[in-house]
Amino acid sequence: MQGINLEFKARMRDEKRVRAALQSLRPRVAGTDHQVDTYFRTSSGRLKLREGTIENALVFYKRENKAQVRASRVLLLELAEPDEIRTIKAILESALGIAAVVDKIREIYFVGNVKIHLDRVRTLGRFLEVEALASKGNLRQARKQAREIKDQFGILPEDILSCSYADLVLERRRPRRTGKR
Q: What is the pTM of this model?
C-alpha cells in the first residue's frame, strides 16, 4: 500500500476528555494491540518493522519533524507469517542495523478514513496519534479532519510532538550533559 496520511502525535494530558470525545465520534473499535516497532538505520526517512497481535507490517515513511498536523508519505507491506517477519527482521538488522525499538500497547479506533490510536509507550508515557488517510488528491480534507479531532480532543499546541516515538527513545538513551568539565 502506498499513501499519504495527515497526522499528529500528542502527549495525552487529559485522557478522560480524550476518551469522552472519542466515544462521541462513535468509532469502530479494531482492538488493543501489543506492538513492538523495530526501527532500522536509514539514510533518509524511517523504516520500521511492526510486530503486533493485530498489525504486522514493514513500513517506510517520510515526514517533516514539525509539531503540527503534517503529511506523512507511507509505503506499507502487511505481513502475516511469523517466519516471514523473523526473516525480514534478520535481513534488515544484518544489512542496516537497529536504530531503536519502541514497545507499546495501542488501542486502535476508526472513524471513517481516520485512524485514532491511544498509546501507552514503555518508558515514555501516554499518547494520542491521529492519522487521516488522504484520498487521491484530497490532502486538504484529511488535514481538516485531523485538525478537527485535535480541537475536539482538547489537544494543546505544546502537547503535539514534532518527532517519532523512536526519536524519543533515542533521546532517553543519550547521556545527559551536566555542564561540568
A: 0.89
